[in-house]
Amino acid sequence: MDKKVAKLLNEQINKEMYSSYLYFQFANYYHEEGLDGFYNWYYVQAQEEMDHALLMVKYLQNNDEKVVFEAVAKPEADLKDRMDPLKAGLAHEKYITGEINAVYAAAYEAKDFRTMQFLDWFVKEQGEEEKNSSDLIKKMELFGGEAKSLYMLDSELKARVYAAPSLVL
Ligand code: OFO
Question: Record-annotated residues binding Fe cation (predicted)?
């Protein structure tokens, strides 16, 4: 496996773990706000992010590359109102999309076709996650201002269930 690509993928493990940590912070914020559906939605998202990290760990291991675990930074999102996690979430997903694209670009340059194929799933996943994040903002703008509709939106988000990733290595 190309060494530069392996290094970038190793760094990406830490970013996925940070994503998980960040979304646990959001979940905790909504727990404190008494919004169980929003709490659930981000709790599931945090679990998915940990899965992403573990898929990358497995991929590196399968390719006989050394995996290095670095410290995960403290999540620093400043959460003052109910819209803040949603906006911070979308901004974070856009950042992660850029990072995944950078690993992909390095794999492309190195003609590391196996890693490109592995990353295809993540590229698609980022598209879905950006859309989900942006949809949540729109729903909150539409329904978040009134208690009854906020209650219904919160109930809708409570229905999200964790499912293991469809990517099999
Ligand atoms: Fe790891 O999926 Fe988005 O960030």
Answer: 16, 49, 52, 93, 126
Distances (CA, A) of 144 to 44, 140, 162: 21, 4, 24
Task: Check if the beta carbon of residue 53 is closer than 8 Å to that of residue 16.
Answer: yes
pLDDT digits (tens, 9 = 90+) for 91-108: 999 999 999 999 999 999
CA of 146 to the centre of ligand 1 (A): 31
117: left (phi over 0), alpha (psi -120 to 50) or beta: alpha
Q: How far is the CA of 7 from the centre of ligand 1 (A)?
A: 18
CA dist., res. 23 & res. 17, Å (int)? 10
What's the rounded mean pLDDT across residues 56-78? 96
Write out residues with Cβ below 6 Å of ligand 1. 16, 19, 49, 52, 93, 96, 125-126, 129
In which residue are the tokens 């291991």 written? 61
Claim: this prediction has a pTM higher than 0.90:
yes
What was the pLDDT predicted at 166? 84
Which ligand 1 atom is the nearest neighbour of the CA of 16?
A: 1
pLDDT value of residue 12: 98
Q: By C-alpha distance, which of 86, 169, 168 is closest to 130? A: 86
Cα distances (angstroms) measured from residue 21 to each of 6, 63, 97, 127, 159: 23, 27, 17, 21, 22
